[in-house]
């Protein structure tokens, strides 16, 4: 089959669920028997998402092949149940960097390299390469940002050029927003009309409009959008707010979105509609009544007066997948680590939760509060799952309070912070290398030290999939079926092997080891119903229909 490309752009405003729309369309097409992949284009200059503060940009997702990308890629993987690779993530910075490198290598044969067509051509070749690499029949391309902004114009240009060269294989979808102003009380279509005109001025006519709104679209609005936006009424799809994002594919299918897309591309489904598993999963979400209370002790929550949970989205989704598979409704609470620093006695509140997670993180803020929380969980047998930084802190807590190494810490926190001021608003703090900490139970590897010294911060952590050998007779051995597993990483610091002996002697179990570098990947505490902490990020591999075994066991114990 000739590959088909569906470009998805956003109208009116950001944050209306383009990523979920792309993921849902992917799931629908997959259920019709097609091989699907999805690409995210972010219009910013950053080469990847790894250098951005999660409060500003949400979670940094990591793929098996180690790219640090936008959280939408996590949604693609979760909905499609397919792995996504480096080629599927584009940013302006990445595209320009490739073109400039090529120019420096004399690969343009002495020609003048120009923004148009050389940049869109690079975009197009990357989109095609991602499709080829995954042997996909459908390549869904999400263009980040909103139609009408300057930043994503070159990507729309690439989409337009693709339609020109592949007229029968390219479709455009606009995900637009229809506000219902409180005082007016009526759903307004005008902003969407403007969005379509703007798209038209970029040479693109949408084939389908997904109408996002608080409530379902009525026939009057459907017709209006149809007439003013030059789209058949049946191609204006109602996409109201719903209880769970996992219901979106089912909602789209109520309006036969899948069949409509196939018809426009002169295709027939390869197999009969099969969303049975997905429907069962959504039913579980809706019918789970009993709750399980999980506390997440973190720090990337607050921006101004709002609480953002996007920074931990994969952790949240992994908790949901596991809880729903056990027919429990997860009640997740955000607990600020800094509170336990200011008021250590308040850590007692952790008793109210069935289980506690300490997720990944960087820098020193909130560290001592998290260590207090871990100590409480260890001593009071509260089920505890530590992720990346969560494992490093569990080791520090154990070293300090059980092994009596009072100065135990991580090189990341024990060195003075060098604060580089780029401007007043954006301060980037980076650890200074070289200074020694007496008890660096968590330390930096020699190769990482070199990178830090040279200020090579972007894309240089231990990233992506690494193997881990599981120790028999551990919780990890019980939950993972294989004795050799593979999990995704994103960190610079590691458990210092010089301290392994003393930690083990005092009862800490090294339940998983990276065989190539002999690095500790999982620790467990024997005298506890569930105290497991991992140097990797299992949350990145949890899928709705295949909850991650560690999360599942954690939730199971929490329920008990
Ligand atoms: N800051 C720690 C490190 O770099 C942990 C990173 C993380 O939690 N992802 O090793």
Summarize the structure.
With 560 residues, the protein is of the alpha/beta class. It has 20 helices and 25 strands. Helix 4 packs across helix 5 and helix 14 (367-380) crosses helix 15 (389-401).
Notes on the structure:
- This protein has two domains: about 280 residues, P-loop containing nucleotide triphosphate hydrolases (Rossmann fold), CATH 3.40.50; about 270 residues, 3-Layer(aba) Sandwich (Rossmann fold).
- About 50% of the residues are buried.
- Strands 13-10-14-15-25-24-23-20-21 form a nine-stranded mixed β-sheet, sandwiched between helices. A seven-stranded parallel β-sheet has the order 5-2-6-1-7-8-9, sandwiched between helices. A three-stranded mixed β-sheet has the order 16-19-22.
- The protein has about 550 residues and is α/β, with parallel strands linked by helices.
- It starts with a strand and ends with a helix.
- Helices cover about 35% and strands about 25% of the residues.
- The structure holds glutamine.
- Glutamine (GLN) binds next to strand 21.
Q: Total domains, how many?
A: 2
The N- and C-terminal alpha carbons lie at a distance of: 51 Å
Label the CATH architecture of the largest domain. Answer: 3-Layer(aba) Sandwich
> Taking all residues together, what is the mean pLDDT?
91
Bound ligands, named by name, code or SMILES: glutamine
Quick one: overall form?
Answer: globular
Low-confidence stretches: 416-435
Strand order of the largest sheet: 13-10-14-15-25-24-23-20-21
In CATH, the topology of the largest domain is named Rossmann fold
Number of helices: 20
CATH class of the largest domain: Alpha Beta
Percent of residues in helices: 25-40%
Number of DSSP-assigned strands: 25
Per DSSP, what share of the residues sits in E-state strands of 2 or more residues? 15-25%
